[in-house]
Every structure is written in C-alpha cells, then in structure tokens.
Amino acid sequence: MVASRETPNGHLPPHVEETVRVVEQMRAEHHTNATQIERTLEWVKTKASAPVFVFFAIAFVGIWIGTNIVLRNMAWDRPPFAYLELTLSALAFFVTILILATQRRADTLAGHREQLILQLAFVSEQKTAKIIGLLEELRRDSPQLRDRVDRVADQMTETVDPHAVSDALRDAAEEGSGDSKRAG
User: Fold this and answer.
1) What's the whole-model pTM score?
2) I need a surface site. Which of 3, 4, 11, 66 has the fewest CB within 10 A?
3) What's the domain range around 26?
4) Residues above pLDDT 70, as percent of the chain
5) Which residue from 151, 152, 158 is spatially nearest to 128, judged by alpha carbons?
C-alpha cells in the first residue's frame, strides 16, 4: 500500500499520488540515465550559475586589473589587458558550450513532459466526452427531467480526433504567418 502524502488540507487522493509518483519516476530515470560527463556538466552549470559566482568573477577581474596596474613595469598584462580579454573570451566560449550541452539534456526531459501532458489532455477529453454522454443519456431516460435536444452537449459527446486538431493548428499557424507577412 502507498503511504499518503500530507498536504495543508489533508491527504492527497490516490490517483494524484500516483501521478506525483510517475512524474518523480520520470525525473529520476532522466537523472539515472545521464552519463557521467552529463552529470559533471550539470554540476559545473549549477555552480557557475550560483550568485556567488558573479561576485567571484567580478573579484577575479578586479584583482587581475588591480594587480597589473599596481605592478606597472612588471605586469604580465598591461592595459588594455589583452590576456584578460582572451581569458574572458575563452571562458565565455566554454560557458556557451556548457549551456548548450546542458540545455539539450533539459530539452529531452521537457519533451517527455510535453508528451505526458498531451496524452493526459487527450485522456481527459475522452473522459469528459464520456461523462457528458452519460449525463445526456440520464437526462433522456429520466422521467423526472424534461427531454430536450441539446446540440452543444451532443457535439461534446464526440471525442476529438488528435490528427484533425493537429492539422487545424498547423493550418491556423500557416494562415497566421501569412497574415503577418502581408502586414509586414
């Protein structure tokens, strides 16, 4: 049996606990499937994106400039600080590569989440259509309720074809991009 999670309002319903467990399992699998280099890059990105890193970088540049100004003739990098510029450019290059590498991995998890959300939306739509159909059937069969034709409810009992929705969205996007091209 699954232990219920405590919330401010009490326990979570079992189906919500199951959803939380599945989402956490998906995240854990994503982390477990990471290679050692991906974990290392993620760790470096986490450290480099910490607020203390900004202060470290500013201090590093300040010390570099200050030391070279104070040392004057013995300075290893005289103004305009070409070696500092080269060092910061190389660091910027490595940070860019780091961001791209870790973002690619984050995009994979986001893609899985989007797929899960889409699947849940279709299942919810099917359940809603079924509930509306059952309510309409109850209304027609119950002698206590007036029987009437409700075209909107009848339309809502039909499940949506995902391919038709995808085609309609694609057509609307193409039509919208055509409108913006004509306006521009």
Assistant:
1) 0.56
2) 3
3) 12-49+80-183
4) 91
5) 158
